[in-house]
From TrEMBL:
InterPro entries: LysR_HTH_N, WH-like_DNA-bd_sf, WH_DNA-bd_sf
Domain HTH lysR-type: 1-59
Pfam family, one: HTH_1
Protein name: DNA-binding transcriptional regulator, LysR family
Gene3D superfamilies: Winged helix-like DNA-binding domain superfamily/Winged helix DNA-binding domain
GO cellular component, one term: protein-DNA complex
Record's keyword terms, sorted: DNA-binding, Transcription, Transcription regulation
GO function terms (MF aspect): DNA binding; DNA-binding transcription factor activity
Family: Belongs to the LysR transcriptional regulatory family.
Length: 296
C-alpha cells in the first residue's frame, strides 16, 4: 500500500468534506482517492470517514488519526523538496589548474546530462588533496603513481623548435666544456611537483650528468612556458598541453614519466559517480587518451 498517497487522499478529503473536491485537491481521480482511503482503513483496522451521498465526515477514529496523517504528508513533501534542492546543490570537484577551460566546460555539460551540477575548482596537487581532507570540496582529482591510477597522462619534453628525432634524450642537454651558451634547462610546472614525477626525473638528471640547476621548477605553467618561449629550454608536459601552447613535443628517450590520477572523496559514492559517469570527460580534461576501468 502507498501509505503516503493514502494519507494524502485522507487529509484532503477530510479537509474538504467531499471525495470529489478532496481528490481534486490531492491531484488524483476520485476513484483512486476512494480506493486509497479504503485501503488505509483496512490497514489501520477502523473506518476513518463516514460516507454519505454528499459528504464525507470524520469518524472519532479518523479525527484522532488526522493530525498524524497530516504530519506524514508534510514530512513526505519536505523530503521531496529537500531532494530537489540537493540535486541543484553544486558538486564541488577540485581539478588540476592545468585543465583547459574548454575541456572543463565540456565536463560541466556532461555532468548536467547526468543531473549533476558540477563546480570545478582548479588547484595545484597538494591543495586538491587538502581541500578534500577539510571537506571544502566533495571530491578531487588527486595525483597518484601510475600503478594506482584510473587515468594516466604520458609526459615528454616540449620546445619551440621542431626536434630532429622521435624522442628527446635528456643526456643531449649535458653541457660541454667549450659551450658558450648557458646550459639548456627542463622546466617543471606545479602539476608535476609530485614525488612520482619529480623524483625519477631528478635521478635521471644525475645519472646522465646534468647540473642540478638544469631541472627547475616554476611557480606556474605560464611562468614555465615563458622560460621556454624565450630560450632553448624545454617544458615537461603532456602532448595535449604542448599543442595548446604551440610547442613541439616528443617523449623522453631514457624513461617514461607519467602523471597518474584518481578520485579522492569524503564519501565513496561521490568518487564512484565521477569515475563511472564522467570517466571519459575527465580523461579529456586531463589530456589522457581514455579512462581506465575503475577498480572496485
Amino acid at each position: 500500500m502507498d501509505l503516503v498517497g493514502a494519507c494524502r487522499a485522507f487529509v484532503k478529503v477530510s479537509e474538504r468534506g467531499s471525495f470529489t473536491v478532496g481528490a481534486a485537491a490531492a491531484r488524483m481521480a476520485q476513484s483512486v482517492a476512494s480506493r486509497r482511503i479504503a485501503a488505509l482503513e483496512k490497514h489501520l483496522g477502523e473506518p476513518l470517514l463516514e460516507r454519505t451521498a454528499r459528504r464525507a465526515t470524520l469518524t472519532p477514529f479518523g479525527r484522532d488519526l488526522l493530525p498524524h496523517a497530516r504530519r506524514l504528508v508534510q514530512l513526505a513533501d519536505l523530503l521531496e523538496h529537500e531532494a530537489e534542492t540537493a540535486k541543484r546543490r553544486p558538486f564541488r570537484l577540485a581539478v588540476p589548474d592545468s585543465c583547459p577551460p574548454g575541456a572543463l566546460a565540456r565536463l560541466i555539460a556532461a555532468a548536467r546530462r547526468h543531473e549533476l551540477i558540477l563546480e570545478p575548482r582548479p588547484l595545484p596537487p597538494a591543495e586538491r588533496a587538502e581541500r578534500v581532507r577539510v571537506q571544502e570540496v566533495r571530491a578531487a582529482l588527486v595525483a597518484v603513481p601510475a600503478d594506482e591510477a584510473v587515468w594516466t597522462v604520458p609526459l615528454g619534453l616540449a620546445q619551440t623548435a621542431e626536434p630532429s628525432g622521435a624522442r628527446i634524450h635528456l643526456e643531449t642537454l649535458r653541457a660541454g666544456r667549450t659551450d658558450r651558451e648557458p646550459p639548456r634547462r627542463v622546466w617543471l610546472q606545479p602539476e608535476d611537483e609530485v614525488p612520482h614525477v619529480r623524483d625519477p626525473l631528478g635521478r635521471l638528471r644525475d645519472a646522465v650528468g646534468l647540473r642540478p640547476a638544469q631541472v627547475r621548477s616554476a611557480s606556474s605553467l605560464a611562468a614555465a612556458t615563458a622560460e621556454v618561449l624565450g630560450s632553448r629550454d624545454l617544458l615537461l608536459c603532456s602532448a595535449a598541453q604542448a599543442g595548446e601552447l604551440g610547442l613541439c613535443w616528443r617523449p623522453l628517450g631514457e624513461t617514461a614519466l607519467v602523471r597518474g590520477y584518481d578520485v579522492a572523496a569524503t564519501v565513496r559514492a561521490d568518487g564512484d559517480r565521477i569515475r563511472t559517469l564522467l570517466g571519459d570527460d575527465v580523461a579529456h580534461c586531463l589530456g589522457a587518451d581514455t579512462a581506465r576501468e575503475a577498480r572496485g
